[in-house]
Amino acid sequence: MNKIFASLALAVILLVSCSPKEPVLTPGVWRAVLITSDSTEIPFNFELKIAQDTTIEIITGDYRYEVKDIEKRGDSLFIKMPLFSSSFALQLTTEGLKGDFLRTSYKMAVNAKPDEDWRFVKEPQTPAFSAAGRWLVRLGEKELIGEFAETAGKVTGSFLTPSGDYRFFEGLVTSENRLMMSCFDGGFIRLFTADMISADSLANVKMYSGFSSLEEGSAVRREDAVLP
Question: Is the whole model's pTM more than 0.85, yes or no?
Fold first, then answer.
């Protein structure tokens, strides 16, 4: 009889251990990536808060953008962004969240994982150059002014244009001297990348915007740069 009970107990333990893991929506900082038409990843971070209501705060440097319109149905999560005609339709999996970011004119695949507070590179970087300062950026016939600050390896800032700015960017310079910065707030979706070939010059400059827009150019450090 004891052998029968022991066998049954072992069978129950094996059954429980082999059961599929239940997806759990985990509070804390997440890393998400939006996928462009050429499979480039545009990363951003957000903090998920679960209290009486579920909210998220999109993080860019010291700036936090709160999103409250969140609905959970079973293993699905629907997020409506304030101020913009955009939303997320996501499925909760054992690895995190996956689904689509929806705009009026396009949609982008998105994946997010919990407990990841890094944006581009997880390990600390040791670049030869600093991106801090004022840069004159040329993208085709367009001229922008990049204004960047750098603290503890993190680069933040924005791009100024004659009609306004490109909102908040966050990124870093890698040990290979590659500058990477991204921006997401539900309306603006941008990725800026460049190679720092010297302390005062950027080559292979690329500005991704939305699902499929890509502009290329170059940039030079110019503290006295002004817009036309």
Answer: yes
**DSSP 3-state assignment of 123?**
coil
Q: Per residue in 19-60, pLDDT tens?
A: 557 788 999 999 999 999 999 999 999 999 998 889 999 999
Are 177 and 92 members of one domain?
Answer: no
For residue 43, being part of any structural domain is answered with yes
Reading the block at residue 37, the tokens are 């038409």
Largest interatomic CA distance in the chain: 90
Report the pLDDT value the prediction gives residue 227, as an integer from 0 to 100: 87
Average pLDDT over residues 138-154: 95
Number of structural domains found in the chain: 2
Tokens representing residue 24 in the block: 């759990």
For residue 65, the cross-strand partners are 58
Q: Give CA–CA dist 68/56, Å, rounded.
A: 7
> What would the two tokens of residue 29 be?
């900082």
Q: Establish if 13 belongs to a structural domain.
A: no
How crowded is residue 60: how many other Cβ atoms within 10 Å of its Cβ? 23
In a domain, 128, yes or no: no
